[in-house]
Amino acid sequence: MTKAFLASTASLIALAFSGVAHAEEVALDDPQATRVGDIVVTAQRREQASQDVGVSLSIIGGQTLDERAISVVNDLENAVPNMEVDSQFGGGQPQFRIRGIGAREYSSNNASTVGVYVDEVAHPYTVTTQGALFDVARMEVLRGPQGTLYGRNTTGGAVNVITNAPTYYLTGGFNAEYGSYDRYKVEGFVSGPITEKLLGRLVATTEQGGAWQYHRDTGEALGEADKLAIRGRLTWDATDNTTVDLSATWQQDNSDGLGFRLLGPYRVADGSITYPADTAWRITAWQIAPDMAAVAGLGLDAKPQRDNDGFDLSLRIKSDLGFADLTSISAYQTFERNEYNDWDGTRFAESDVYFYNEIEVLSQELRLSSNIGGPVQWMVGAHYANESNDGGFYTRFRSIGGLINTAYAQDVEAFGLFTHNSWQVSDRLNLIAGLRWETEERTLLSAGTVTAPAISPAPTRYETDLSEFSGRLGLEYDLTDSAMLYASISRGVKSGGFTTYNATSATPFKPETVIAYEAGIKSDLFDNRLRLNGAVFYYDYRDQQVQGLEYDRETGRLGKITNVPESSIYGGEIELTWVPVDGLSITQNLGYKSGKYEKYDAIDGTATDAANPVDGPWDIIITNDRSGERLGFPKLNYGGQVAYDWMFKGWDLRAETNYNYRDELYSVTASSIIDDYWLFNANLTAGPSDANWRVSLWSRNLFDTYYEETRNGFNSSSRPTTSPRQGRTVGVRLSVDF
Length: 738
What we know:
Layout: H1 3-14, E1 25-27, E2 38-41, E3 48-49, E4 57-61, E5 83-87, E6 94-98, E7 114-118, E8 121-122, E9 136-143, E10 157-163, E11 171-179, E12 183-193, E13 198-209, E14 213-215, E15 221-222, E16 225-237, E17 242-253, E18 261-262, E19 266-267, E20 274-275, E21 283-284, H2 290-296, E22 305-306, E23 308-320, E24 324-342, E25 351-370, E26 376-397, E27 404-424, E28 429-451, E29 460-480, E30 483-494, E31 497-498, E32 508-509, E33 512-525, E34 530-552, E35 556-578, E36 584-599, E37 601-603, H3 605-611, E38 623-625, E39 636-648, E40 651-662, E41 665-667, E42 672-674, E43 677-688, E44 693-700, E45 708-712, E46 721-724, E47 729-737
């Protein structure tokens, strides 16, 4: 490992929270990384220095993912301010929230409030993002409504995953990691020229082992990882003005699921056993019912598990037309989900679920961007997507005797036109204007919920559509050569959709919209040794999509996604990067947000149940005015990283720690508070200065902190269960470059 390599690594670490997107190259101030460097970015579809971009965003370089223990996209919540990502009830359906904008649901058919992109290709169903993160150049998080720059429209923000491109020189390498509970991960790549004008890159990774939970009755282990992924990329210089990039990724995840713990005493439905609250951290239990095992194609000894696989293919063509660059991105995705979870945490099938989905997405994007100098820069684009999502899930609940099946077939067709433009009014003032129009049609075929042995009725067709404008107006003003103020107002839209779990009716819920007001500052101080960026925001939130209730006259209470007429959220972020002395880099971030319902007349489930006969019919519906009630997200998070690089007797050394605090969270489904927590990770890396290898010792969750992700109250709030996160693990990592 050379001195230059170490200097570059230290600089990238220092930049981890400096607020950049679409990084193209690093501009170091000196080879010893004694200053906070800058990165050329294209956050607004043209090259700019990161500090000249008037948007709120964060980036994590690929080389820091291991240090921050980011192995799936969910882990971003411990590295980015005002962001949370939950695997809903321990399953494989992640839900993203940025600045409090985000949903909580475990079905896989609705659009996300946060757009997720891999190499500029949208993943409209977040369940497809749960595979291995590998060969990543950087991950970017943009806060606030998006739509004038990206393929899909969102209210919360965007997460961009950018993978490493083929290189013009022959290179290769691997990372091998081994840790607690016999978990190991190996990733290797080879990259370089194939012919004079054709470059290639091939990467493969596998992750195995790590079973850290155990069955309270049998002692059987749970939590084994079993992931495999392969990606190939080709870059062809077709002409002097045209470049073609082809990428193909295949992923398979056959890992165990997550077991649940009992938060309180649990008396099983037949009254034969009352379990005490679990005190052991790693304890859980499960048992699949014979009828569920039959429909899932599993044995009676099946653990909570996934059998998911996906294939992504994309073709990107960029051509210089002289006055503008024309970019075409064609993409095809397919994903199959088969996942069994046990949510009651016992050997009784009282809250179990088996998900199944077959997803196909075909998309096409065209962009034309100006590439000549002048005060006006522009970009226009169009995006088309055609999606099919056939699936559903089988469930078993203690209050219902038979196996429940909720099946659906969904089709989506969406088309959008967008433009993003800037006008340099003076040497210090720049104006930004973007606009998007999008139309969408969603259809769903579903017979609703059917409980065995009942025969499924003929499916009903449900439809919902969207035709909306969104956009952004902003300004950027340079106070000095190293400090910029920016402000913007933007409107974002998230699609409506269908509630597809345990409902007799899939009547659609409406789209939600956000009017976002934001102002911020970006500054470099003290001869570029200190970078301080900050932003404040206020959101006028309309038709917010939330988990609510409806009542069927014959069957009673049903969970359903509903719309809140008016809500509001306000808050801000501060991000700091500091190089106080040569070799020492410190990053800090702080996020705060608060929100409430402004107008919300919700069904009161407890009062409605009390007002009607126990066995129905449910004719009396009682509502409760929840206006003024706090929105259910953590208000505060704080995090950072401290790293020191030095040389000692021919060795390059690096000591690093990173940490994150997450405020308490109210769990709506379990009617309880999930406690706040601190997390710390640590790494020590060493390698000869003149060698191409390095070895690292690491610890994740260094102080063995107990913390929870979500809670489950499906068997009522008096019998809640929780999905715990893993305790302290330690290990070693070997990295070799050829």
